[in-house]
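Chapter summary example: a protein plus zinc ion.
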Amino acid sequence: MYRTGTGRAATEVPVWWAEHAWLGGATAAAGVVLEVKGDRLAAVIPGVSKASSQATVLPGLTLPGLANGHSHAFHRALRGRAQDRSGTFWSWRELMYSLADRLDPDAYHRLARATYTEMVLAGYTAVGEFHYLHHGPGGHPYADPNAMGGALVAAAAEAGLRLTLLDTCYLEAAPGAGPDGVQMRFSDGSAGTWAERVSRMAPDANTVIGAAVHSVRAVPPAAAAEVAAWARAGHRPLHAHVSEQPQENDECVAAYGATPLEVLAGAGAVDGAFTAVHGTHLSRSDVALLGRSGGGCCLCPTTERDLGDGIGPVAEMAAAGVTLSLGSDSHAVVDPFEEARALEMDARLAARSRGVMTPPQLLGAATQGGMAALGWDAGRLEAGRLADFVTIRTASVRTAGADPASPAAAVFAAGAADVDTVVVGGRTVVQAGVHRNGGDAGAELAAVIGELWR
Ligand SMILES: [Zn+2]
């Protein structure tokens, strides 16, 4: 349900009134006015019992915009085609590579636009795209060497969510072994040519250009140091896949005599702007190192369970002060509520005890933690922050009966289908569960994915 005040169209009204809004505490506040100026919140006023006639009414529970900290948009084409196979991460990767080899800038754009539209409909207002598919077949650069990254920038703008393009350096198949097969499309040849290419990409109001080291498997320490220096010089977020697999840890120790996180720290990569993606098999001393550095960890529970990767040391990281965030990664599932719920549920299975994380901690990872990792001044409903917010229905068949003033309603009852309204930078992108573009993202996904697998 979506109602507006009388006399003005919803898009013209810069004031919303939320029945309940989560402002970061143990419970949500009742009757919260959200005033917007430009693309930022000008005022957040709780305890207002009745909406003014100018306000757009948001029935249900309003949250800060949700952040998808780790995405490979093209993996969306694997959903329902990869899950039924046996094997491990490594056998799954073969199928993913065959998909990567089929993409060109046009297909990449259409697939990403529909995938990002699915994300916005699910309540995500920002995505961190870990982008490594840079070049054409055989590794030959396109006429515009950033044609593939540009396709993602356009896709996000059209879908209406913020993009942090984590342009990824990828140089090797394994320590000392050059790229092989489709990996040629990922490689710039050296960190220097990677930096030269990515430096040509300009940020805009909807786009942060960040950096990524694919992994210690794919980037030697000296090159990782160059990427880290480039990121630090431009105050950009830096991400890396870290300890997703025990095999990756073993190979790293064999090659460098140190864990992946230690290798990255030695390269100067691990600081407050750094996010370790996955962190599933971090050692105890890695967790302490990440906590001391001020860095974060982006867990991807629905992908990690799909691939049989394992369960990360969530409680240990939270205790060490690591900023946690969440990502849908391979998009086996695109549902930020399921992702937050999975963080806790998986930790329960590992700990064999309940209540490892509180609902505000889980929502904090899904909102503020992710926005910080992606370099956006969002993730909390407070004056001065970017005006990104999401309202979920609290009277749906899934959410009815849960306390609408409790963050637990979002974490333990809601799903993506309960998202009613999504506002990004003060602009309504989703209203009554319908994207403003009015397109059929499902049909777009079916068309482009069908073409890719033909
Ligand atoms: Zn990934």
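Key point: Residues 105-121 form the longest helix (17 residues).
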